[in-house]
């Protein structure tokens, strides 16, 4: 079973590449300085996780990243007693460690977690800024440097998986989308090493594929997949094969749909 006790932790350092789309960097900084939680909304692979990593590095704060999933419970975030050498020992979860360290805690796809997770988050997202650790009897006060950031993809929401209004209204919120064409060309080129001239048709293809969202495709192609594709091309893989491997196959298993997607590839590349 996956455990949040093994959440990814990164320390401050050189900020990873991120090209701002609007004023999201200023909003993040303002939220951090004023001790406000932040919610990021946007499609899969549009840059939310990279944005948080970039901002954590810019602000010089450690970052605890938790990829939420169906089995993630509040105890995975707060901590639990584990058996070590015949004795039980309390092990902090990533949320507790982030509070103690004055770090940024990022809950990726928070709506995937169990409902009891939001109960734990509530006292951290109002003026109390506390984390009650019931199993140890501690009540941790979050230091000024602590920040809670969460994200989700509104396109995947359902009746069973959504944030209650009482939870949503505890966060500032920023809506993300895929970058504009000129920005996306710059991002994909910088990340992959592929020239902007060769990246441009990939971005045009992505726009055509994203137009099919809600029709033949559940989700449009992500900027992340474009970077994968461009990286393969830059490494010498034939363009057609790179597109098939990184853009067509990940989007659909349906043979008819894939034929239609390949027609779009032919229309862009001739």
Textual characterization of the structure:
The chain has 11 helices and 10 strands. The model has no long low-confidence stretch (mean pLDDT 91). The longest helix has 15 residues, at 196-210. The strands form 3 sheets. Strands 1-3-6-9-2-10 form a 6-stranded mixed sheet, sandwiched between helices. It has a two-stranded antiparallel ribbon with strand order 4-5. Helix 8 runs antiparallel to helix 9 (223-234) and helix 9 runs antiparallel to helix 10. It is elongated, with a radius of gyration of 21 Å. The protein is α/β, with parallel strands linked by helices and 270 residues long. It folds into 2 domains: 4-175, P-loop containing nucleotide triphosphate hydrolases (Rossmann fold), CATH 3.40.50.300; 181-269.
């Amino acid at each position: 079973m996956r455990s949040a006790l093994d959440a990814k932790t990164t320390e401050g350092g050189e900020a990873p590449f991120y090209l701002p789309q609007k004023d999201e960097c200023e909003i993040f900084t303002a939220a951090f300085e004023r001790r406000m939680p932040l919610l990021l909304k946007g499609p899969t692979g549009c840059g939310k996780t990279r944005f948080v990593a970039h901002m954590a590095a810019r602000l010089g704060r450690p970052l605890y990243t938790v990829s939420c999933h169906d089995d993630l419970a509040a105890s995975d975030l707060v901590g639990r007693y584990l058996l070590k050498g015949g004795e039980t020992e309390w092990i902090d979860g990533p949320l507790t460690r982030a509070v103690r360290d004055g770090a940024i805690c990022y809950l990726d796809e928070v709506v995937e977690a169990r409902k009891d997770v939001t109960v734990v988050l509530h006292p951290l997202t109002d003026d109390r800024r506390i984390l009650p650790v019931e199993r140890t009897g501690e009540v941790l006060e979050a230091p000024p440097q602590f920040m809670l950031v969460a994200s989700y993809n509104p396109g995947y929401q359902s009746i069973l998986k959504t944030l209650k209004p009482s939870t949503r209204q505890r966060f500032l919120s920023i809506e993300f989308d895929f970058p504009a064409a000129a920005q996306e060309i710059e991002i994909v080129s910088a990340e992959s090493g592929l020239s902007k001239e060769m990246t441009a048709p990939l971005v045009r293809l992505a726009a055509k594929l994203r137009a099919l969202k809600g029709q033949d495709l559940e989700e449009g192609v992500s900027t992340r997949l474009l970077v994968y594709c461009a990286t393969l091309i830059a490494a010498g893989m034939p363009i057609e094969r790179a597109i098939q491997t990184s853009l067509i196959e990940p989007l659909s298993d349906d043979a008819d749909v894939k034929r239609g997607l390949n027609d779009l590839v032919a229309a862009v590349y001739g």
